[in-house]
Write a structure and sequence with these properties.
alpha/beta, 11 strands, 35% helix, BirA Bifunctional Protein, domain 2, three-stranded mixed sheet, 269 residues
Length: 269
C-alpha cells in the first residue's frame, strides 16, 4: 500500500509564516506522528534567510536588507545566507524511516533525484554534484550559500540552480531547498558585510559565475505553479506515494504554527 503524503502549495507567505509552518509540520510528525508533507512556497516580500547557527550582523547587513524592502528570517536548517527572490522554495518534512531512511546524504540524494528529473523535464540538462565542497570553500565563512555546492546539490553547467539544507530532530527531518526561477544570487553581494568595494565586486562576480536561474536557461518562461505541478508529479513518481485530499495542517500543527510565528519574527530575535 502506498504511503500517503500531504502536498501543500502555500503560495506567497511572510518570512516568519514560512519558517513557522515548516517547523510546525516537523513537530507534528515528531510528537503526533502526523502525515509527512511536501510544501512549496514563495516569499512576500523577497527575503534573506540565514542559517540556524549564523550570527546576523556577522553575515548580513540588516539595514541594507531593509533598504531594499526585503524580509529577514532565521531558518531552522543550517547553511549560509540565501536571497529568496521570485523562486520556488520546497520543504520535504518526513520521518527518517521508510522512504527517506538512511543517512543525511542518502536522503539528500533521493530528493535530489526528484529535483534533477524535474529540471530535465523542462529542458534543463542539470547535473548532481558528486563531491563535497573543498576545505578552502568551507572556510570562507562570509560567502553566501550559493557560492559553493554540497554533495548531491543540483548544478547547470557548473552553476548552482538549486541550494538545499537539512535538519534532523528526533525521528524526523526537514529539508529546505531554494529553486531559482528568475534571479541568481548576485544581489547578495550588496547585503553581506565586506571590507571594501573591491571585495564586494569580487563576491558579486563570484555569485554571477556560480549561480543561474531557471528562466535564464529556458526559452519559454516558467511560472511558479507550472513548475510546482511538474515537481509534485515527480515527487509522487520517485517516492511511490499517494497524496491526501486534505493537504492542510493538522489541528495540532495549527496551534504550533500560531506560536512559532512570534519566534520567527525578526523583531523577536
Amino acid at each position: 500500500m502506498k504511503e500517503t503524503w500531504r502536498f501543500i502549495n502555500s503560495g506567497k507567505l511572510k518570512p516568519y509564516e514560512n519558517m513557522a509552518m515548516d517547523e510546525a509540520i516537523l513537530f507534528g510528525i515528531i510528537n503526533k506522528n502526523d502525515p509527512p508533507a511536501i510544501r512549496v512556497y514563495d516569499w512576500d516580500p523577497p527575503t534573506v534567510s540565514f542559517g540556524y547557527h549564523q550570527k546576523i550582523k556577522e553575515h548580513i547587513l540588516p539595514d541594507k536588507v531593509k533598504e531594499y524592502g526585503f524580509g529577514l528570517v532565521r531558518r531552522p536548517t543550517g547553511g549560509r545566507a540565501v536571497l529568496h527572490y521570485d523562486e520556488v522554495t520546497y520543504a520535504v518534512i518526513s520521518r527518517t524511516d521508510g522512504i527517506l531512511a538512511g543517512s543525511v546524504l542518502e536522503s539528500y540524494k533521493k530528493i535530489g533525484e526528484v529535483l534533477l528529473d524535474t529540471l530535465r523535464e523542462i529542458g534543463i540538462d542539470a547535473k548532481m554534484q558528486n563531491s563535497m565542497p573543498s576545505d578552502k570553500e568551507q572556510k570562507i565563512w562570509v560567502n553566501p550559500c550559493f557560492t559553493s555546492a554540497s554533495k548531491y546539490e543540483i548544478n547547470y553547467k557548473g552553476k548552482k540552480i538549486i541550494g538545499s539544507a537539512q535538519i534532523r530532530k528526533g525521528n524526523a527531518l526537514l529539508q529546505h531547498g531554494s529553486i531559482l526561477l528568475n534571479h541568481n544570487q548576485e544581489l547578495m553581494a550588496e547585503l553581506i558585510p565586506t571590507n571594501s568595494n573591491k571585495e564586494k565586486e569580487i563576491i558579486k562576480k563570484l555569485l554571477s559565475k556560480k549561480t543561474i536561474a531557471i528562466n535564464d536557461v529556458i526559452a519559454k518562461s516558467m511560472h511558479f505553479n507550472d513548475f510546482v505541478n511538474i515537481l509534485k508529479n515527480n515527487f509522487q513518481k520517485h517516492f511511490g506515494i499517494s497524496y491526501s485530499e486534505n493537504g492542510n495542517l493538522t489541528q495540532y500543527e495549527n496551534q504550533l504554527y500560531e506560536g512559532f510565528k512570534n519566534k520567527y519574527n525578526i523583531d523577536e530575535m
